[in-house]
Design a protein that fits this description.
This protein is α+β, with helices and mostly antiparallel strands and 185 residues long. Helix content is 15%, strand content 21%.
């Protein structure tokens, strides 16, 4: 396209928009604002007439009583229509982040040390990668919802929930013991 054709096309597109603008005189004519209606002149006080006793006002309708809201048997407008069921402990466990010890099986852990104190024993376990963890009674351990039930002498007892082929859940106690030395005498 030539330059002239582009300029003409632009003018043809802009012309209807410009034509409707008020500053070119096109478009709607503006009307002057309407004059406000004349104000009535205040009434001239009449000559004083003899004072009459005011007549009592008789109200044919009784005064409306104040409205009182009784919420019994009505839905609460501020509660959601769909109420989620309350979360149980099992549901909360589903959404809790697992600790590194819960991601490992008990057979992957090696007992390294036990410290016995009057306040309770503490043990140290190590995973296959060599990373160490400190455990006490109540620590969650293993993939099957295991929990350290006792630490005594040279053994750590872990209570797990084992599921059999019928889907029955039975508690099982597993032991973590120090590895046996392989030297023979």
């Amino acid at each position: 396209m030539t330059r002239l054709a582009i300029i003409l096309l632009a003018w043809l597109l802009l012309l209807p928009g410009i034509w409707g603008c008020d500053w070119l005189g096109g478009g709607q004519e503006s009307k002057p604002p309407a004059a406000p209606p004349p104000r009535p002149k205040p009434a001239q006080p009449a000559k004083k007439a003899p004072a009459k006793a005011p007549e009592p006002v008789v109200n044919p309708t009784p005064a409306p009583q104040e409205y009182v809201y009784y919420p019994a048997g009505k839905p609460d407008p501020f509660r959601p229509f769909i109420v989620p069921p309350s979360a149980t402990l099992k549901d909360k466990k589903k959404f809790m982040a697992l600790t590194p010890l819960q991601k490992l099986d008990i057979s992957q852990l090696k007992l390294v040390a036990i410290i016995q104190r009057p306040g309770g024993s503490t043990a140290m376990v190590q995973d296959a990668g060599g990373k160490s963890y400190i455990i006490v009674k109540g620590t969650l351990l293993g993939r099957n919802d295991g929990q350290v039930s006792a630490i005594s002498g040279d053994t750590v007892f872990v209570k797990e929930i084992d599921t059999n082929f019928l889907g029955e859940k039975n508690p099982v106690i597993r032991k973590l013991e120090f590895p046996k030395s392989e030297t023979k005498e």
